[in-house]
Amino acid sequence: MSSAEVARAFRFFETNAQAITDEHIRICSIPASPFGERERAEYLSQKFSSLGLSEVEIDQEGNCLGLIAGATRSPLLVVSAHLDTVFAADTNFNVVRRDHRLLAPGIADDGCGLAALITLAQAIQNEPISTEGSILFVGTVGEEGEGNLRGVRYLLTRGRWAAKVDAFLSFDGPGVDRITNRALGSRRYRVEITGPGGHSWGDFGLPNPVHALGRAVSRLAAYPAPKDPRTTFNVGRIEGGTSVNSIPRTAMMEVDLRSASEAELRRLDAFFRRAMRDATDEENATRRAGDPELKLKIDLIGERPTGETPSDSPLVELAIESTKILGFDPRLDQSSTDSNLPISLGIPAITLGAGGTSGFSHTLDEWYDPRGRDLGLKRGLLVILGMVGLV
Ligand SMILES: [Zn+2]
Known about the structure:
Elements: H1 4-15, H2 17-28, H3 38-50, E1 54-58, E2 64-68, E3 76-82, E4 96-98, E5 101-103, H4 111-126, E6 134-140, H5 150-157, E7 167-171, E8 178-183, E9 185-194, E10 198-199, H6 209-221, E11 231-240, E12 246-247, E13 250-259, H7 262-285, E14 295-304, E15 307-308, H8 314-325, E16 331-335, H9 340-345, E17 349-352, E18 357-359, E19 367-369, H10 373-388
Parallel strand pairs: 3-6, 3-7, 7-17, 8-16
Antiparallel strand pairs: 1-2, 2-6, 4-5, 5-19, 8-15, 8-17, 9-13, 9-14, 10-12, 11-13, 18-19
The structure holds zinc ion.
């Protein structure tokens, strides 16, 4: 806090609020659906190059990378935000301003993280701030949903920086008090029930996949999920059938199971599987003798490990002190983010808010209010410089 470079960078965040928001709007206007992050990654890599980062590339998985080399290569800190959103390719990503708010799908999750990435790199380059260790800036692909952390997984297990990373920091969403140091485990499934199908009147009595799926949803919805450790389930998508007067041939749903505890997650998982089997059996039991059976298929489409970066690790302590020095009460929490993966590999990792406020995340009404963003950026800078060291 007493360094002149840090003071200059802090002023940069305060006096450039408008330009930072303009950049935020530019990057969020580029569509980035799951598995459709390429254009946004290319924009970010041009940005990294124009800021003078070295070793700028888009890796084989689609992550965008750029290095600010310090006096030495280690410690090497990854500073990341995710490029992808939860929204389909045909979504309108244009950003609308209303009063203080910016409205667009993905504007906060993780548009504000991407804006933080660019701004922090810019502050370190332009002020300039010389560091002991090095900082690898990364826009990751595949953080959301079926992306299943594929970007960060490639980066840390197969990419050319794998095994060279000493710590990992992700900016995801808004805020200045949250420090996510625990990884929330999740399992995601696609359930498909198939049958012969037929005429709604003429073939009545054949087992019906949508009816079976309804029974399955009803059983899952009755699960007595504990509040502590927090455990949740969600049927997020259903699909099936072709017309109102046809017995469908298929019904499909996608299910997300989460728990703060690995043991509770296993218990929920077992209940879920049994519920799917029982529901299918129940529907099959209604069929006439000799009619074909419904078939049940359960595919695991995502799995995120649980774990934590201990609260007394240097990275978490730095985040706690940085939060306090800016006048906020640090709040350690648990979530499902890119940090799950490094945590599972034993690399110290946390996820921080990028400042500002937001609402309606993961919906088409998502908004972000950049007021107070500078505080998130200041906290982020302090954590980064604490990890890599000032020269
Ligand atoms: Zn996110």
